[in-house]
Write a structure and sequence with these properties.
448 residues; alpha/beta; 4-stranded mixed β-sheet; 14 helices; 26% strand; globular; binds shikimate-3-phosphate
């Protein structure tokens, strides 16, 4: 019998994931765990590095993105023990004590690393920093962070009129601001709040819709003075902050669990339990959207772990129905739109996703790439300027598709391939390791 999953190295040092789903008895059953939450992992490393005393991190994501964060902060003097998912120790060096690195800091593929770090570096007086990233990151917009930080007095220069990395940052004393952000972005919000920690007085960020609030929760846990105003959707920090190292426990990443939620819903005869998943309400838009599609998903064993809500998620095979989504739900499921598009390809009716133009500036243009690659597999899918329109029900056929080096695209296409007829080849599939290094072994375990 043909191997259901094979990773084939290619001449240009990428990997192609070949998927040949078994023709019968595919049902996905059993219990699985997903790796640690990416957003929380970055924040735990960063706050640990700038706090006083020791921070311990249980359940850190060992994906390439948090590894980039750890490497950058080590280069600036933070002592971070060997990285593992059991217990990492970070010896903090204080909020204003990051050392000037002797070389360029490399954020790799990680928007969270570069944007959050910029907020911190801007306020490191009399030190100079250069920050860059991979080809994808160097093409992503940085003005959304550079502009508000400049209003605080930051001196940041970059390519293309100070909008793209590589960036040069000359640390300065910053002044607090009240910033009304035009986009609901946790990276923008967190970057300004991190800068706000270093200056004297109150820094406020107002958002058009609530983005993930992991920074707010962790700032409070580390002892920062922070207030949230839900009426105007704003958050205020008071600096200069005194942060103290904490014991952080990172829950499983709901963005990684989303692949299995959709797989369990679209593959017949499935019944999967995904244990220990973070269900922070600013992240559970995907559960609401899938439940609205009539996916059979239940939350079990709901609890609070180190300040974040956690649950086990059970999913069973479902008859999905199309939905229309937009507005304030979008920031609560922004990273899950690619896999939601796969669910929509198996739902009855036409799904419309609006107000999601931010997807065009993620690790790839996720609107264009999902439309083209899912289209290659036979899905009825078209681009809108601000989202996607997908009519479910067309039988998918195995095809050669490309991840465009985007981790979430690689994994979304792999889940679509489970329900496609014949063989699918996903080019540059190694991108999955950015957020989910064990994605392919978990697929193998489920089919084993
Ligand atoms: C993240 C925020 C989101 C998200 C990204 C992680 C974070 O980006 O897409 O994967 O950890 O703050 P934006 O802030 O650009 O929406």
């Amino acid at each position: 019998m043909a191997q259901p999953f094979v990773l084939l190295p290619t001449e240009d040092s990428h990997q192609t994931l070949q998927i040949q789903p078994p023709s019968t008895g595919l049902g996905l059953r059993g219990r699985i765990r997903v790796p640690g939450d990416k957003s929380i992992s970055h924040r735990a490393l960063m706050l640990g590095a700038i706090a006083s005393g020791e921070t311990t991190i249980e359940g850190l994501l060992l994906g390439e993105d948090p590894l980039s964060t750890a490497a950058c902060f080590r280069a600036m003097g933070a002592e971070i023990s060997e990285l593992n998912s059991e217990r990492v120790r970070v010896k903090g060096i204080g909020l204003q004590n990051l050392q000037e690195p002797i070389d360029v800091l490399n954020a790799g593929n990680s928007g969270t690393t570069i944007r959050l770090m910029m907020g911190l570096l801007a306020g490191q007086r009399d030190r100079f920093f250069c920050v860059t990233g991979d080809e994808s990151l160097r093409s992503r917009p940085m003005a959304r962070v550079i502009q508000p930080l400049s209003q605080m007095g930051a001196e940041i220069r970059g390519r293309q009129g100070n909008t793209r990395a590589p960036l040069a940052i000359s640390g300065r004393s910053l002044q607090p601001i009240r910033y009304v952000s035009p986009i609901a972005s946790a990276q923008v919000k967190s970057s300004i709040l991190l800068a706000g920690l270093t200056c004297e007085g109150q820094t406020t960020v107002v958002e058009p819709a609530l983005s993930r609030d992991h920074s707010e929760r962790m700032f409070q846990a580390f002892g920062a003075k922070l207030t949230v105003n839900p009426e105007e959707i704003s958050v205020t920090v008071e600096g200069p902050a005194e942060l103290t190292g904490q014991a952080v426990v990172v829950p499983g990443d709901i963005s990684s669990a989303a692949f299995w939620l959709v797989a369990g819903a679209i593959v017949p005869d499935s019944d999967l339990l995904i244990e220990n998943v973070g269900v922070n309400p600013t992240r559970t838009g995907i559960l609401e959207a899938l439940q609205q599609m009539e996916a059979q998903i239940t939350l079990e064993n709901e609890r609070i772990v180190a300040g974040e809500p956690v649950a086990d998620l059970r999913v069973r095979s479902s008859n999905l129905q199309a939905i229309e989504i937009g507005g304030s739900l979008i920031p609560r499921l922004i990273d899950e739109v690619p896999i939601l598009a796969v669910a929509a390809a198996f739902a009855k009716g036409t799904t419309i996703i609006r107000d999601a133009e931010e997807l065009r500036v993620k690790e790839s243009d996720r609107i264009a790439v999902m439309a083209s690659e899912l289209g290659r597999m036979g899905a009825t899918i078209s681009e809108r300027p601000d989202g996607l329109e997908i009519t479910g029900g067309a039988a998918l056929q195995g095809a050669t598709v490309d991840s465009y080096t985007d981790h979430r695209i690689a994994m979304s296409l792999a889940i679509a391939a489970l329900q496609a007829k014949g063989q699918t080849q996903i080019q540059r599939a190694e991108a999955a390791a950015v957020s989910y290094p064990d994605f392919v072994p978990t697929l193998q375990q489920l089919l084993g």
